[in-house]
Amino acid sequence: MVIFPALTQLDLTGPYEVFGRLPATKVLLFAETLDPVKSDKGLRILPDSTFEEAPQVDVLFVPGGNGVFAAMQSKTLIAFLQKQAGGAKYVTSVCTGALVLAAAGLLDGYKATTHWLSLNLLRLFDVEVLEERVVIDRNRVTGGGVTAGIDFGLQLAAVLYGEEQAKEIQLMLEYNPAPPFNAGSPKTAGDVIVKRIVDDRAEIQKEREDLIKKMLEQKIMAE
Questions:
Q1: Distance from C-alpha of 33 to C-alpha of 154, rounded to nearest angstrom
Q2: Would you say residue 197 lies in a domain?
């Protein structure tokens, strides 16, 4: 599991809780250095290994968060993902972590998903974007925004160790969602709330769109 500054901790810790309960499984956190990594809400997370010293993994995972656009431009992180993906059995992400995988060219020709607010950004890449909570396409597994990480983790657990194992983990987590409001999707939250969120984030989303387009233009020119 890759970590970087300003990641969203629940993108990471939701799947981590599931993976940590799998049998014969070791979960490792990789970062550029061994210094604590601060999430976008201030939680400090300790890496287990640097990118340089990381062993080859079976499952490669990238979370999302405000820090993804710096991550997309980090040559060290992108090179690490590309190297690990070559030997990994599964390459995965939750939320806007999909944008980092896409920037590394690791979702080219695959179906994938991301946070609803960034689906249009993922479409800028050579990716078949699906508006689903979890998307599995061959050995690429991607989850939607933030809380979808738990669903993602359980579905991947079922792929790795079977449905019964995944169900046991779900029960132990008492993952039985009963949200207080029917507002967890832009399809149900209501136009006023959706518009407010979209408007509030319009400027930063435009900056991100421009950045991705610039990155893709530079890639084409380099080729």
A1: 29
A2: no
- The number of distinct structural domains making up the chain is 1
212 domain-assigned: no
Does the pTM surpass 0.85? The reply is: yes
Q: What is the pLDDT of residues 161-210, one digit of tens each?
A: 999 999 999 999 999 999 999 999 999 999 999 999 999 999 999 999 99
> Among 2, 10, 95, 127, which one carries the catalytic annotation?
95
DSSP percent split of the chain into helix, strand, coil, nearest 5: 45, 15, 45
Is residue 143 domain-resident?
yes
Domain hosting residue 45, numbered range: 9-181
Domain of residue 99, CATH code: 3.40.50.880
Note whether residue 188 is domain-resident: no
Residue type, 212: I
**Any idea of the CA torsion for 153, 105, 38, 117, to the nearest 10 degrees?**
-70
Distance of alpha carbon 80 from alpha carbon 63, whole angstroms: 15
The DSSP code sequence of 162-187 is -HHHHHHHHHHTT-----SSS-SSTT
C-alpha gyration radius of the chain:
17
Is 179 among the catalytic positions? no
